[in-house]
Amino acid sequence: MAQGTVQVTHTGTSRWRRRTGEYASLAAALEAAGDGDVLTVAPGTYRENLVVQRAVTLRGPEGSPGSVRIAPVDGVPLTVRASAVVQDLHVEGQDAAAPALLVEEGAPELVDVRITTRSAAGIEVRGDARPTVRRCTVDNPAGVGIAVVDGGGGVFEECEVMAAAQSGVAARGGARPRLERCRVHHTSGAGLSATGENSSLEAIGCEVYEIRGSGVQVTARATAHLTDCDVHRTTADGVTLDTDAVLTLADCRIHDIPENAVDLRSRSVLTLTRTTVRQFGRNGLSVWDPGTRVDADQCEIFDSTGDYPAVWVSDGATAVLDSCRVHDVQDALFVLDRGSRADVVDSDLTQVRNTAVSVSDGATTQLDDCRIRDAATGAWFRDHGSGGTLSGCTIDGTQTGVIVTKGADPTIERCTVTSPAEAGFYVSADGRGSFLNCRVTGSGGYGFHVIDGCRATLRKCRTERCARGGYEFADGGPGTSGDGPVVEDCTSDESAGLRLPEPPRETAVQTTGRSSGLLGAIPGQRSTEQDHLVTAVPEPEKPARTSSAVLGELDALVGLESVKREVRALTDMIEVGRRRQQAGLKAASVRRHLVFTGAPGTGKTTVARLYGEILASLGVLETGHLVEVSRVDLVGEHIGSTAIRTQDAFERARGGVLFIDEAYALSPEDSGRDFGREAIDTLVKLMEDHRDAVVVIVAGYTAEMERFLSVNPGVASRFSRTITFGDYGPDELLRIVEQQAEEHEYRLGHGTTEALLKYFTAIPKGPSFGNGRTARQTFEAMVERHAGRVAQLAEPSTDQLTLLYPEDLPQLP
Where in this chain does the record put each Carbohydrate-binding/sugar hydrolysis domain (predicted)? Predict the structure, then answer.
């Protein structure tokens, strides 16, 4: 389209000026125009760099939107330095170092301007400029959509940024734009961005969506206020705050976010009022660092699509939820780390697949008059220093109402737990806690279940209709000589009331039948039943073998030459270290935990047992006994039971070796929120806290164990070395069969040795190959076939009863 003419309608009062005039270029028309004049631009393409310095009206023809193109080869196509009106123009820029439309001064009006450009910015407002921008569109796949910088401001109404290579709307350097009913979408940076001290962005009734980055980003002491806005379908976090940022969200909707819906760090402050957060892949609210704070009032957080807590508070941050609803999520509220705190008032936490409230690593939480319903665990205070208060709360329809473990010490007062499947309140592993005026009704298990002699305090509590009993104090209850719970003025609807167990006699030990429940070992008898007392008879101790004797048994094993060398080297290090200590010298630190890799049947369990005996003979371990477990022994069916099962296995191995076969099963590749991770975390902490009490050996296939260690650096750092158990060769498998035959008083007949070598050479070595197990199974099959052959003889001789021949070999699999 060729360049047209420009008609200028003069409004000046000087008699010498014409009322109208036509000019061949926009530049000439602008030069001739005065304040108040109207410049009507004929359709066409104008390759000019325009500067508007007077309060004129510059517009395209009525009824032909987009017919006037301002498209110079380079530079800024349109610069406005006055309170002018620019309307119905199409601006195109090509300069990556300059904006397409630059507003430098005044309070101009930009109306129905379309900007299609590949510039540094579609619209840039700077300095003292305060434009009003209405119904403008920006398409800039090379830079920022709208940039307001260096103290600039203005109002943007019903504008659309439909593409930007960077932020859709960016405020920096003390800028203060206001957006009303705008749409920002398909940007490669943040949808809305405010950064720098004194920078502030306000958005009302706006929509931010389809963003390849964060929907809203506020950083470096900037502030922002969003009212009645939608933020959705981003690839990164929905809202990001960092470094003293301040943001207010009122009546907003944040949804369809694959990462954190809202993430804030480094002393940022967020206030949410009547805002909904839903369909998020990670945390709904993610709050980090000392001084960072969230205040949420009348908000709703729900419908998480990932396996993460809806509200995450850590590293000393604070969150306050007042009259909020959190529901249909994996976990509702996780508070971690010393100094972190969450205050929740008059709120509902419902439809929670795992834990409604989790407090750990020294954090605290305060829940007042809250309602927790339909969760696996209502509240879990996990470890030493973790605590807080639950006051006036109701917990309904959970597996367990409240769990207190590992030295945690909360105060639970005036709380009611209704219809828990397992226990109303469960305290174990040195957990403490004060339970005041609490009530449990309709429990499928116990009302209060306190084990391990935990020093919990129960005052004026009440239980009703608890299937297994109102109160259970296992392993040292009130009234025993141990350091168990303190119980005062507690009642139950059982006819016998609350009866405290009698202290055991000095010459007797208390034995209680046990059955396993989802929360671990649960005494089979209630505390209201009479305990059965038997005289304690100590078991005779087995004479301990010397390390030389145990190493001799190790040497007698078939094959495993590299394994034997590794174990001997480790044993020598430990022995020399012990002797150096006895001589008053420093001993090198030797981590005794091991990784065994290799296929099944290569002797890993046998070597683990002998290794424990060796360490016991050297005085490193107390007993050296072996406790063998696998995933099924450690991982429970719901959150809470896994940690307890893992701790129980660790305690059984105390003084010996805990051997975890197929340990990689604790961390499957598609684990998500698999409870195996909880077993790993518990195990790592126990290994650190009791490093001299138990030796842990993890074992499994070589490739799978390498992956297991690579994805769990916390586990990998606890082990000193990896010992690889290679597959047995045909000669070694033959030797195992010969040992089996000798042990069971059989002999190999003529040709059987050669037949076995050919058999073990030809046997498939796939995943089902069992190495030593295969050799033993082969021997058992030969014995079975031998029996079928010899049973037909009337009076077989001794040779016939003992000799195994090639025909006794089974068919190759």
Answer: 41-172, 313-474
Q: Which tokens is 592 given?
A: 């005794």
Please tell me whether residue 65 adopts helix, strand or coil conformation.
coil
Count of positions (residues) in the chain: 813
Q: Which of 602, 603, 626, 600 is nearest to 613 (CA)?
A: 626
Rounded to whole angstroms, the Cα distance separating 124 from 160 reads: 15
Query: How many of the other CB atoms lie within 10 Å of CB of 535?
Result: 8
Q: Which of 380-394, 523-537, 656-670 has the highest mean pLDDT?
A: 380-394
| Cα–Cα dist 486/752, whole Å | 72
CB neighbours (10 Å) of residue 742? 11
Average pLDDT over residues 539-547: 54
| 207-213-217 Cα angle (round to 5) | 70
| DSSP secondary structure string for all residues of 137-181 | EEEETTSEEEEEETT-EEEEES-EEEEESS-SEEEESS-EEEEES
Angle at 149 between CA 112 and CA 57, to 5 degrees: 30
One-letter identity of residue 36: G
Q: Three-state SS for 21?
A: strand
pLDDT of residue 511 exceeding 70, the answer is no
Strands (E), 183-330: 183-187, 192-195, 200-204, 207-211, 216-219, 223-227, 230-234, 239-242, 246-250, 253-257, 262-264, 269-273, 276-280, 285-288, 293-297, 300-302, 309-314, 318-322, 325-329
DSSP code of residue 718: T
Q: Please state, in angstroms and as integers, the Cα–Cα distance from residue 272 to each residue in 247, 255, 291, 575, following that order.
A: 8, 15, 17, 63
Phi, psi dihedrals of residue 537, rounded to the nearest 5°: -120, 110
How far is 534 from 103, CA to CA, in rounded Å? 94
Q: What are phi and psi of 334, to 5 degrees?
A: -115, 125
680-724: pLDDT as tens digits: 878 887 887 787 788 888 888 888 888 777 766 667 777 767 888
For the CA atoms of 120, 126, 131, 137, what is the dihedral angle to 10 degrees?
10
Q: Are strands 38-41 and 6-9 parallel, antiparallel or unpaired?
A: antiparallel
Q: How far apart, in whole angstroms, are the C-alpha atoms of residue 435 and residue 453? A: 16
Query: pTM for this structure?
Result: 0.64
Output the CA torsion sign for 287, 327, 447, 675. negative
Residue 50: which of 124, 117, 100 has the closest Cα? 100
> For residue 373, which of 392, 348, 390 has the smallest C-alpha distance?
348
Q: Name, in order, each residue with C-beta under 8 angstroms of 661's C-beta and a sequence gap of 6 or more.
A: 604, 605, 628, 629, 630, 699, 700
What is residue 126's three-state secondary structure? strand
**Range 332-352 burial, b when 16+ CB lie within 10 A, else e:** bbbbbbebbbbbbbebbbbbb
Under DSSP, the state recorded for 667 is S
State the CB neighbour count (10 A cutoff) for residue 812.
9
Q: How many Å is the maximal CA-CA distance in the chain?
A: 145
Query: pLDDT tens for residues 647-663?
Result: 888 888 888 999 988 88
Token pair, residue 703, equals: 């490739």
Tokens, residue 132 = 């009003």
Q: Which residues pair with 389 in a beta bridge?
A: 366, 411
Q: Which amino acid is at 9?
A: T
Q: What single letter denotes the amino acid at residue 469?
A: G
